[in-house]
Amino acid sequence: ELQCLLWDVDGTIAETERDGHRVAFNRAFAQAGLDWGWDERRYGALLHITGGRERILADMADREGVPRDPVAREELALRLHRLKNKLYAALVDEGGIQARPGVLGLMREARAAGVRQGIVTTTSRSNVQALLGRLLGADWQAWFEIVVCGEDTQRKKPDPEAYVQALQALGLEADQAVAMEDSGPGVAAALAAGLQVWWRPSVYFPVLEEAVLASPRVAHWADGPPGRCRAGRVWQ
Ligand code: XBP
Ligand code: MG
């Protein structure tokens, strides 16, 4: 019996990547005096590396003129990532990012029906705070029993660790929760943890591999969510 919604953040709750994180990364590079830039195509390719700091490091591997010393490289990536997150929060505060259609409605329906909810993301906690504070208000944490962020796990999606941690914290079996996801790595993480998935295509993940979509545990979120919340349960 499904009784819990586990929400991915980026790409699922809002289209944060192209006009949010990507723009903030580029602003951070510019503010740091680097002539680096990620256009939409490059960023789309880099999104398969989850985690902003990890993404910067992966990009550095293909660049000239970056520190050769691995420690110096790590430090630069960390500094750029912190700056990016600050700039991302400012962008969100300006109202630049909206919730995707149907998201707030489903969250409200779940809350009213007594369906448990959690956040499971590879994004930094500060970015979750900025976005959900803006979309749901200052008491956004009251909507979710658990909030698993990038800082909370050893391994980011597609590793199932974040979902496994969420299930443990909630005291649920895998077949009692459904993950709302958009990305290939996100869907892979949820499936590897044994969950049902409601997959929602996003700007950078308009399609997934045929084999993934054919899984009986994946339902497609088209015009609206493929199920409803009623009487403490998720029906699909
Ligand atoms: C999200 C990510 C994050 C964001 C940026 O993946 O991979 O890295 O792109 O946030 P998912 P940070 O939606 O699958 O959780 O810079 O805080 O990592
Ligand atoms: Mg996502």
Automatic annotation (TrEMBL):
InterPro entries: CbbY-like (IPR044999), HAD-like_sf (IPR036412), HAD-SF_hydro_IA (IPR006439), HAD_sf (IPR023214), PGP-like_dom2 (IPR023198)
PANTHER family: CBBY-LIKE PROTEIN (PTHR42896:SF2), XYLULOSE-1,5-BISPHOSPHATE (XUBP) PHOSPHATASE (PTHR42896)
Organism annotation: Ideonella paludis
A molecular function (GO) term: hydrolase activity
Record's keyword annotation contains Hydrolase: yes
Coiled coil: none
Name listed for the protein in its UniProt record: HAD-IA family hydrolase
NCBIfam families: HAD-SF-IA-v3
A Pfam cross-reference name: Hydrolase
Keywords: Hydrolase
